[in-house]
Every structure is written in structure tokens, then in C-alpha cells.
Amino acid sequence: VIVPRVALVIALALPAIASAQVIQTWTQKSLAGDTSTAGESSAVVAMDANYMFVADNEHETLRLFQRFPVSSCVDPFYSTNMRPWLNLTSTNPEDDIESAVMTSSGGTNRIYWLGSHSNSKSGGNLRPNRDRLFATQVNGNGSGSPAYSLAYIGRYDHLRADLASWDRNNLHGLGSNYFGLVASTNSGVPSEANNGFNIEGLAMAPDATNAWIAFRAPLVNGFGPTTNLASRTHALIV
Fold this sequence. Notes:
The chain has two helices and twelve strands; from the N terminus they run E-E-E-E-E-E-E-E-E-H-H-E-E-E. By secondary structure, the chain is mainly beta. Strands 2-3-4-5 form a four-stranded antiparallel beta sheet, with no helix packed on it. Strands 6-7-8-9 form a four-stranded antiparallel beta sheet, with no helix packed on it. Strand 3 and strand 4 (about 60-65) form a beta hairpin. The two termini are about 20 Å apart.
């Protein structure tokens, strides 16, 4: 069971910019008609110098690819479908995986996969299937066949509500509804609007225990409460 804590949270308001630092580049080219890469690759976890797990925001199949293929890579070395474990409804069933992070403890590697927790892009319709945080254990050491595989561990479906409650109940000490997260999660608010709710990034903090969640939306006021009249100029990390 995954039980995230949102009681003690770091909230950073950073100026929203149009570019990011490139830490590493790689190429993953597939031949036309390769269904394994249908949709958009949205999250990558490097296992070692040779392999990486890749998620797609259009489905819940996690795949192991070569990181630096010499030629076009048609098929992954390994794939596993997480959908049966996520209790998704048949209407708009995508989890919309947007980010992932790996933790290591006692020789065990675990990858956390995070859905966007967003409404629809047009119309702002509620999409509860996207409210998933789930974990997989990594098996293998890079030398077997497959080099690595994944085993489902568990999931948590209430992070969106927790974050809205954290803001509404002033658990960050900045004031009730300081970031306007309750309003951002309301039906009718599109996910990509600057007042929407859309998670795009996940990383471990330097303490290797807590996680940082990066939002595409909402943008927030970097100089005070995010009210209806406030200028939304800063990105949000929780």
C-alpha cells in the first residue's frame, strides 16, 4: 500500500520559463507501424548505461528499451501492462502517466509512476482514472533476459484530493487556499489552463525520502496568495 504524506511539504514558487536545462540526450527511433510507441512517451527511468523503462501517456504498458541504439529499435526488450492492477473504468480509461522516479533501498529498486491527476484538456471534464500513483519493484541486474522486469506493488488514488485539502486547510501555513488548488480541481477547468491542475514531473528530494511534484498547471502568484485578481507568473513545485 502506498501512503503519501502531504502534511509536511516544500512549496516553491519559481518563475515559469520556456526552456529547461538538457541533462542528457538519447535517440529512440521506431519504424513506421510500430505499435509499441503509439501515443507519446511521457516518462523515462534510466536503469543503467544500456537500458531504460519508458511509459506512454496513452496507455499503461511499461517498456524496457535500449538507451543508445545504433539503429532503429523496432521492439522493446520487455513490456508489461499495468492496466489490470489500476481499477480503471471503461470510460476514458487512460491513467495518463506523466512522470516517474526510482528509489533504492537495501538493494531493492522501486519505481513510482504518477498520473497527471488532471481534468480533460478541452472542457475540463473530470477524469478520475488519471488519479493514480502506483509503484513497481524492479527485478534483475541488467545481465539477464530480460535485463530488467517489473512487478506491481500497489497504488494510491487520493493524492489529488489530498493536495486540494492540504491547500484548503492551510497545512502549509501560508493561508487557506493560498495556491487555489481546490478551484483548480473543479469540473469545467481545462487541464492546460493556467488555473488548471496538471502534474507533469516527479523527482526525489535530496533527502532521498520525500518526493517533489512539479505542476504544469496551475501557475501561481509568486508574491502572495493566488486570487482571481493575482498575476499567475510562477510554476509550482510541492
